[in-house]
Write a structure and sequence with these properties.
heterodimer, A: mainly alpha, 2 domains, 3 helices, B: mainly alpha
């Protein structure tokens, strides 16, 4: 974490005013993508398991919704 | 990353977005330097309050009111309060991620987990947001119908509000407009008082969680899952993290971010419980609301029981709930779409020229929801009742990503989750998964059996 800069009143030079921001907060810094997270095999399996589970549950909900709608 | 000594930082190659954000940050620094804690809190208030009060949206208030009308003052009153406590735990993580990484939730999933999971998450969000936005327009329509205002005008109002809020190209302006509207959520508290609930019944319900709900298991599970989906939803994660980053929160602001989230939680919990209490006279007078949600719905049904002023306030409350959520949910869609698209602007501090996808997504999704509501024969009430349920069903993957990201030391450093937060986060994920799947399985089996007979 960077310390906050000294107070720069509005109307001062842009580069001074911009010091109110942390360096990694600037658009130029945030535009650089973060590296990919190396997911372990158990984590990858867990992500897929949750996704498949959600798809099954969603299918049940959609089926019930459509049947009740047509009643 | 840039540091202060690098040419990119000192050289002045800054964007309009940097400049606008730095103006807001300068105010925060000035307030901090002068020792004005109240001013620092005021300046940093926003994303948490908006996420929480924005989630007290049309379908949520209808869900709380439906709980009161179906089961009275009992189990669901303390249950709603507990779901808000769960929402605080989840939203605090999301705020912390935004403050530390300065990136939105969709952006982080895309960058840390890859394009596939990024698009899948954004797809989940887009579906739930579109359906939820339809219900926001429905809520505004119900509220306006009470005053004999036609559906096209209600839709024009809803979409026009999103367009108006985006004018000005400043996050701070958008945020203060939305917050001003959001405070009117407390109108439900006035309605609850006008409904004259028994203080003993309120105290008894909070202390004992009784009377317990009776009747159909699938209706109980639907209400249970809807109430969870009314407080803990995917769009809130996307919104609060992106809004915290857009506002310019830093790790130093995390205590104020927590306070912001806590204030939002308390205000939203009070308003949510108040909606249940306000509709409880319908339970006492045995009014079946399951078939009476269309048209002017709750305000009209409550009119003979709690009086015209209270019914008018209830209708106004629904309009406000829908209006605030139109702003926040459209914004969360815009953040997600433009973050996942990558390399394009995604800030309210940018004009439509600087961030065309962001602004088109913001207004476009609202306009799409409005257009669907105007299609004759669309099952609006069925959509409204199932919107929160869908949010509950799609929440577990979002919570899993959130927990992994909030424990990612590479991006969070010392701001990773504590053991207590992880325990609570895992518990909430398990309960949300169980509630959503319990309803899905029970309702499916009931429907399947009834079709078989």
């Amino acid at each position: 974490m960077q310390p906050e800069a000294k107070f720069q009143p509005e109307g001062h030079h842009e580069s001074q005013l911009i010091e109110s921001l942390e360096p990694d907060q600037l658009v130029a810094a945030v535009a650089k993508p973060l590296p990919r997270l190396k997911l372990s095999r158990p984590v990858r399996i867990a992500l897929w398991a949750v996704r498949i589970f959600v798809l099954i549950i969603s299918a049940l909900v959609v089926y019930t919704f459509i049947v009740k709608l047509m009643e | 990353m840039l540091d202060r000594d690098s040419p990119g930082f000192a050289g002045g190659n800054f964007t309009h977005e940097d400049r606008d954000r730095s103006l807001d940050r300068t105010r925060v620094f000035n307030a901090r330097r002068s020792g004005s804690r109240g001013m620092v809190t005021w300046l940093l208030l926003g994303p948490g309050v908006l996420a929480m009060l924005g989630e007290n949206d049309g379908p949520s208030m209808l869900s709380y009111a439906f709980s009161g009308a179906t089961y009275g003052i009992g189990f669901f009153l303390p249950f709603i309060a507990v779901t808000f406590a769960a929402a605080y735990v989840v939203q605090e993580m999301s705020m912390r991620l935004g403050a530390v990484t300065h990136r939105g939730y969709g952006e982080l999933i895309f960058q840390r987990f890859g394009r596939f999971w990024g698009w899948v998450s954004a797809g989940d969000l887009f579906v739930t947001n579109l359906i939820t936005l339809i219900t926001e327009v429905i809520a505004i329509r119900i509220g306006m119908a009470f005053f004999d205002i036609s559906a096209p005008i209600a839709v024009a109002f809803a979409v026009g509000l999103v367009v108006l809020s985006a004018c000005g190209s400043r996050y701070s302006r958008w945020e203060r407009l939305a917050m001003g509207l959001a405070l009117f959520n407390l109108v439900f508290l006035v309605v609850a008082v006008l409904a004259r609930p028994s203080p003993q019944a309120l105290g008894h319900a909070f202390l004992t969680w009784t009377p317990l709900p009776k009747g159909s298991a699938s209706v109980f599970l639907l209400v249970l899952a809807s109430n969870i989906g009314a407080t803990v939803t995917p769009w809130m994660l996307f919104f609060q993290q992106s809004a915290s980053a857009d506002k310019g929160l830093t790790p130093r602001d995390i205590p104020q971010g927590r306070l912001d989230t806590l204030i939002g939680t308390l205000l939203a919990a009070v308003a949510g419980c108040a909606a249940l209490v306000a509709a409880a006279p319908l339970f006492t007078h045995h009014v079946d609301m399951s078939q009476n949600l269309s048209g002017t719905g709750f305000p009209q049904a409550l009119l003979p029981l709690i009086g015209r002023p209270a019914a008018i306030l209830f209708a106004l409350g629904l309009m406000e709930a829908g209006a605030v959520a139109m702003l926040t949910i459209s914004a969360s869609t815009a953040y997600a779409v433009s973050e996942v698209a990558g390399g394009v602007g995604h800030s309210f501090n940018q004009s439509i020229r600087e961030a065309p996808l962001f602004h088109v997504a913001n207004i476009g999704v609202a306009a799409m929801a409005g257009a669907i509501v105007l299609i004759p024969g669309t099952p609006l009430m069925a959509i409204a009742l199932n919107a929160n349920l869908l949010a509950t069903v799609l929440m577990p993957p979002a919570l899993v990503f959130l927990l992994i990201l909030a424990n990612d030391r590479e991006i969070m450093g010392s701001n990773v989750n504590s053991r207590t937060t992880n325990f609570l986060g895992i518990l909430i994920t398990a309960l949300v998964t169980a509630a959503g799947s319990a309803y899905a399985v029970v309702a499916f089996l009931e429907t399947f059996q009834s079709k078989g007979h």
